[in-house]
Design goal:
The protein has 367 residues and is α+β, with helices and mostly antiparallel strands. 60% of the residues lie in helices and 17% in strands. It has eleven helices and six strands. The longest helix has 40 residues, at 12-51.
Amino acid sequence: MINALTGFFPSRTVSFYMARSFLINTFAFLFGLVLILQTLDLLSESGRILTYPGNGDAEVWRYVSLRTPQIIATFLPFSVLLGTIVTFSTMNQNSEVIALKASGLSAHQVLAPLMLAGLGVAIISFGFNDRIVSRASATLAAWKKVEYGPLPIDRGDRSNVWVRSDDHLIHVLQIKGKGDAALLGGVTIYERDGAALKSLVRGDLARRAGDGWRLDKAERFDVASGTLSPLGGFDFGQGVRPDQFTLANVVAESMTFGALNEAIGDLRAAGRPTKALEGALWHKLSGPLSAVLMPLLGAVAAFGIARSGKLFLRAVTAMGLGFLYFVADNFALAMGNLGAYPPFLAAWAPFLLFAMIGEAVLLKTEE
């Protein structure tokens, strides 16, 4: 099995040479893009950062440290595409691809070292996004909310949260604290029989009581009779967990894969919509894997005789295929957020579609 896999690749020397050229070109483009884009971004944001009294160079560099991981995560796939095109164009111009094919290698075998290197880039990208980009995004978003001032301590306070308990709906104006110490303020319980509203129960403060919640000084308004009656202490929300209230605002970009998966489960148990977040969860896998797809899309620059004068056209075609993939990827995610596409389809359809397109172009080029 191992011998069959290693036999699919060119020789170790050639594979290492191709992978090294691909990685050098990729990260050279990434460094250039990050340097230029971070400079432009800093020019637009430095004025806002320094507007806050007491901010100086330290805060500017802090912004750079938080913004740079986001730029790297966004433009790494573009860098892989450009690195692929430059690597293959150079090899084509030097007749190295012709030499490899003359030795009996197929187009897929020529691509194999770059796709394996792309898989390594994808694994690194996933770990980088999960551990560094998510934390940087969460911190930067919180910092922007306070206009680049001192960050407040997150005590779990949330506001305007809806939770479903059986057929009933619970609306809370404000949540303070976490876990069993959470306090619910401004509680309204919409008691329903199926889809029909029967009564409303209101109270100012609710706290954890056993497996549910207890509302102090509650009042019930009966919809049918139009009467308002005091209830005193009122128990509600049996089986409703505190985290179903505190997970009011889930931002996929600011959470790790595991945390987002757990949050989706909590939101689903609370009866809240999760389709957009499920699409974002799948995209945390399909996004980094685009590094494996780029060598396939850029392969059109590798094959064909350079002296035919069509090398530039082939490179432009490869670049066009790559950018079309990113356009389709963003479009599918937008459709997923609107509910037009199922989450799995929104995240994986562009990847699978362009994998088939790249394969078709590769087979046609090889013929």
